[in-house]
Amino acid sequence: MRPLFADAELASRLEGFAARENERLVAAARTIDPDSSATSMRIAGGSAVFVGGDGAMNHAAGLGFSGPVRPSDIDDIEAFYSSRGLAARVSVCPLADPSVWLELSRRGYQLTGFENVLVLVLAEETAPGACDDHVTIREAGPDMLPSWAESVAAGFAAPAEPTEQERAVATLAAHEPGALLYLAYVDGKPVGTGELTIDGEIGWLSADTTLPPFRGRGIQSAMQRRRIARARAAGCELAVTESSPGSASQRNMERLGFRVVYTRVNMTQWEPVKHRAHRLRD
């Protein structure tokens, strides 16, 4: 396999996946509720999606890899979200065409977060690791979707109880078309989760959680190795994941050989929805 470089070519592959991932979540929302208002729009080489509610999953991604982003593209994204009572959220890759940065900055978008994208070349072997002998990892079948979703929500919310919004997001992830879902058990109790989505040469790892009392026992490392092996067996060239910069999840992935290839910037339209309509064509 040729060397992997953290360049615009790689970013285009990964951001193309992110745009398609958005669209799969729309399909999941419609599976859960055929009358759902979830929808997507292809725009500027990426996609803007609405899956319901007002959460951060309603956002645009993958912009700026098919050429310059025009002011009218951002107008269309803002109109897409404004018509649903939302401010526009855009996830921006630093290797995209600079026009996306310039246009969002001109409009006064606020920086609201960072997200590292990490990659492992699957021709390489992952680092060894140990897992508690009492831990069992199983692929979740269709009858286990509610248990998986509740475990994901509980893992992300811990130590608090999950909110209805967190449960809704986890249920959405559980119904993503083609996703492989995994549960880690200790003494028959689900204590950790993971998800793998295979799209061509990419295997994307997500939904990594472990309940607090069971952390430090190698559960996530074992969950990651299980999914990496599955992606390699499926013929994937790359395993990819995301993390908050400097987080425990990032360290876990780096121990297995993943490396950060770029950091996305999440940007949000700053104006209240009610004041935006007259500016859409400025």
Characterization of this structure:
The protein is 33% helix and 27% strand. It is globular and about 55 Å long. The strands form two sheets. Strands 4-11-5-10-9-8-7-6 form an eight-stranded mixed sheet, sandwiched between helices. Strands 1-2-3 form a three-stranded antiparallel sheet, sandwiched between helices. The chain contains seven helices and eleven strands. A hairpin with a 2-residue loop joins strand 1 and strand 2. The C terminus is likely disordered. With 282 residues, the chain is of the alpha+beta class. It folds into two domains: 124 residues, no CATH class; 113 residues, Aminopeptidase. Helix 1 crosses helix 5 and helix 4 packs across helix 5. The termini are far apart.
Order of helices and strands: HEEEHEHEEHHEEEHEHE
Tell me the span between the first and last alpha carbons: 48 Å
What do the pLDDT scores average to? 91
Tally of DSSP helical segments = 7
Shape verdict: globular
Strand content of the residues, in percent? Answer: 25-35%
Low-confidence stretches: 273-282
Helix content: 25-40%
How are the strands of the biggest sheet laid out side by side? Answer: 4-11-5-10-9-8-7-6
